[in-house]
């Protein structure tokens, strides 16, 4: 599929044409002024042609793109993809643009007043220029919508949170790409890895990618939070606002403008460009030296924090202009992490070959943590998303029955024997709706440091590993912090005591089951879904409240009956009493995990 991708910033426009994963054209416009703008255009792998073009703003630059495509004999476009900075909480994945979707995107502008407007303008212009082509928006924020509430919530008054103040995270398309690329290069499934992605460019952010899903990232409500950046401060005490107002008489817009445009490397060392800062530091400039040490220190703190958040780390990936090019910055960030088993290889780190989207390792043979470098490829990822979305349109919005799961356990034979005695066999009771599954007549007790849950159901058949599924409320009753996990993803899960009539067992495997939809290949095809998709499901309830559940995993298996599994907390939140149906939220899909 031939796809044109736009990435519009407030003062620049990048675009590319992709055929599958092959980039056949790469262009950009920037440094707009009264006399025009800098234009760069490259066909395939050829060197870019750079000229000063006459376009004085992004609008006229976009209008010139059809002419440039014709000049380079690039024809046969089938779709247009757009990078959008902010998709709020509702765009869990790429969205096919129509008037209604565009209106929903426009309504999110207050969340990203500096970034979304230029991108929306590019989208509108492209719709006028290519009215017959499908246009798809891909959002920087979508990847992070899997972050748990503990990572997205600020501890601030509820009225502030009610108007939408929360952490979102950005650079999602880049983090998603480099995490996938790292897993590919390691030859391991992404869903088995804990990866920290370090996007160190002009803007910079770190992201904890646990088993394929983002669980935390360093940018917050806005792209200001987190790492030190070219002109942005990163983390700063919000008390600074009051202090600066009292000491310097600065108002909020002035402080905000300075935190975005006059801070970071620029404030510390007089240049936002890491190449200049490194050169000055090597010449003995102490301000540049401080900028570099502070930059690396902040990045290393995030690496440590995310390793702790994920209970370990399998791979760290560097990307972005600084992450890709600065061997000394990579070294500074990684030095001191030997306690985590991270060892760099000096030679590999010095000059990794990143051509052809390679993701070379730069860690030593004896390093427990893989460290890799790769060029980010946000436009390629957008093109892939567009193709995936358009290739899998929903044919029919099936009604998806909701099944509410109470707390229950799946036991291994070893656990059965520990709880009920050697050689014990569970008594098969009532069948469950999913073929082959049943409730045992026996029950167990769960015990944690805070309390017990009695008469907990056991579901059959037996499993190779014991898994205990509770709701968030149950986990507080037990007093144990259970992670939200997909069934079977039990590494680094906490232990809980299981008590049966014969004895007890302290078993890991305590989880809050991530919501999911079971379906079969036939229904999945009708809904335009594949195994591993993350979708939003809108649920209506008898009391009229209902809820749309983002981040819902699709699990396709032959013979499965289509139904959505929620736990009791989720069902209560949606006002679901006994029976309810859900439907796929329109026009939004997230791409499947590879
Ligand atoms: P990006 O926003 O990803 O294009 O990254 C821009 C940043 O990468 C700027 O701070 C550049 O100075 C930095 N950068 C590019 N090349 C190098 C290099 N060879 N060494 C250090 N920093 C670099």
From TrEMBL:
Its cofactor is Mg(2+); Mn(2+). ATP binds at residues 14, 199-203, 273-275, 321-325. It comes from Paracoccus nototheniae. It catalyses: acetate + ATP = acetyl phosphate + ADP. The record marks 171, 232 as: Transition state stabilizer. InterPro entries: Ac/propionate_kinase, Aliphatic_acid_kin_short-chain, Aliphatic_acid_kinase_CS, ATPase_NBD, PTAC. Its EC number is 2.7.2.1. HAMAP family: Acetate_kinase. Homodimer. It comes from the Bacteria. This is Acetate kinase. It is found in: Cytoplasm. The lineage of its organism: Bacteria, Pseudomonadati, Pseudomonadota, Alphaproteobacteria, Rhodobacterales. One of its GO terms (molecular function) is acetate kinase activity. Catalyzes the formation of acetyl phosphate from acetate and ATP. Can also catalyze the reverse reaction. Keywords: ATP-binding, Cytoplasm, Kinase, Magnesium, Metal-binding, Nucleotide-binding, Transferase. Pathway: Metabolic intermediate biosynthesis; acetyl-CoA biosynthesis; acetyl-CoA from acetate: step 1/2. Belongs to the acetokinase family. The active site is at residue 140. The keyword Kinase applies. The keyword Cytoplasm applies.
